[in-house]
Amino acid sequence: MRKMVKLSLILSILFLFSSQAVAADSYIGNSGEKFVTGIANVATGFMELPKNIILTGQKDGPIHGITIGLAMGIMHTVGRTTIGALDMVTFLIPTKPSVNPPFIWDDFSRETSY
Hints:
The protein is mainly α and 114 residues long. The protein has 5 helices and no strands. Helix 4 packs antiparallel against helix 5. The longest helix is centred in the middle third of the chain and has 28 residues, at 62-89.
């Protein structure tokens, strides 16, 4: 009887972490996605600095890129990193990503919005 309970527990855990269960639009899938985007945004938040310098420089010229782009880059670096940390802490409450684009590498030529 004990072996049967262990086997049932192991099979349940394996099913829970299977690709179909995680990929489904479920609580576990949404929570996992929020946690992963949080980790990625904390780890890559600093990339907002060169991204905003480049985007502002291309749009308004190099002087604006160095000044306004730098200020916007600092603001977005703090924003993406802070929201990533909050997503990591609150991943048990599955919500849609707060940062758009969710990952900085998704669309490097688009400004970040919250």
